[in-house]
Design a protein that fits this description.
The chain is about 55% helix and about 10% strand. With about 325 residues, the protein is mainly alpha-helical. Strand 7 and strand 8 form a beta hairpin. It is elongated.
Length: about 325
């Protein structure tokens, strides 16, 4: 094609330095090309707006999921991103429930929510084990023991979250019937069951100068677990401990626990816990913990607390 022919077609070619690559320029109809560019730009802006809305919706759902108890690891797996990326989303997104964005990063609030989630999880286990124990009636001892262990962990998580000064925690700690003391004693016995079976559990020992001494071989009392069954669901451990005064101190003679004619002076020790009553008491402080964490309005939490507060059928 000659230069004149090229000019007549409205097409120019690049110079040899460009590798003779054609650079097409539509000089015959500039208006349609301009309109096409404007339409393309409009579509790009619409796509950008749609993407921005989708991103905001995703970030809102991520924030809401975390606030309602879903772990950041679970969110990361669902989105196929890293936990660090989830933290980035949370830091740039306002909270779903209208509170300050800085609250999500508050160490106290984060710790409270973690403890609340742990407390509800263990309370759920305690409820299941209690219900199984009730259904088994006379054969429910093992399920009852597992319920005690789960109750103790649930209560411990709630106490740690609320603090010892919280009124609900104060009531729980001061309740000698179904509160912290009988629950802790039962839990300690189960956690160190091998020592109690051998007659040398902590509560079986003599307390001298604030410390409990190991029992000598001739003062190792047996342990008898008992299961009440029926509607009361009482779990009782019967053993012995050294004779004590009214304030719980071991009675001594010349600095040693009392003996008579060489025989240790020991008294019966009953460690009894009613599963349903303890379940209701633990459910109350877990409920307070969930309020502080903002979980109390969740349907699954309400259902869980209702099951903990109910009576045996």
């Amino acid at each position: 094609m000659t230069d004149r022919e090229a000019e007549s077609t409205g097409t120019t070619f690049g110079s040899p330095a460009d590798g003779n690559r054609p650079a097409l320029t539509d000089v015959a109809s500039p208006q349609p090309l301009g309109e096409t560019l404007r339409n393309a730009h409009t579509r790009v802006r619409e796509a950008e707006n749609a993407l921005s809305r989708a991103v905001r919706e995703r970030d809102y759902l991520v924030r809401k999921a975390v606030e309602e108890g879903l772990s950041k690891g679970a969110v990361a797996r669902a989105l196929g991103i890293t936990r660090q990326a989830v933290y980035g989303l949370l830091h740039r997104t306002p909270q779903a429930h209208g509170t300050r964005a800085t609250e999500e990063r508050s160490p106290d609030l984060v710790a409270l929510r973690r403890q609340a989630k742990a407390a509800t999880s263990w309370l759920s286990v305690a409820i299941q084990q209690t219900e199984r124990a009730e259904s088994e009636e006379v054969d429910g001892m093992v399920d009852g023991m597992l319920a005690v262990l789960a109750l103790y962990v649930a209560a411990s998580c709630a106490i740690r979250a609320l603090g010892d000064d919280h009124p609900a925690v104060q009531r729980f700690l001061g309740d000698k019937e179904v509160g912290h003391e009988p629950l802790k004693n039962s839990r300690d016995l189960l956690a160190h069951f091998d020592a109690y079976v051998a007659g040398d559990g902590n509560l079986q020992r003599a307390e001298i100068d604030g410390q409990r001494r190991p029992n000598p071989p001739d003062a190792r009392p047996p342990l008898m677990p008992m299961w009440g069954g029926g509607p009361e669901q009482q779990l009782t451990f019967i053993t012995k401990t050294w004779v004590r005064s009214d304030d719980g101190k071991t009675l001594l003679l010349d600095g040693e626990p009392l003996r008579q004619a060489g025989v240790p002076c020991m008294e019966t020790l009953d460690i009894t816990i009613d599963l349903r009553d303890s379940l209701r008491a633990t459910g109350e402080i877990v409920g307070e913990c969930c309020k502080g964490a903002g979980f109390a309005d969740r349907q699954d939490v309400r259902d869980l607390l209702a099951r903990a507060a109910s009576s045996a059928d």
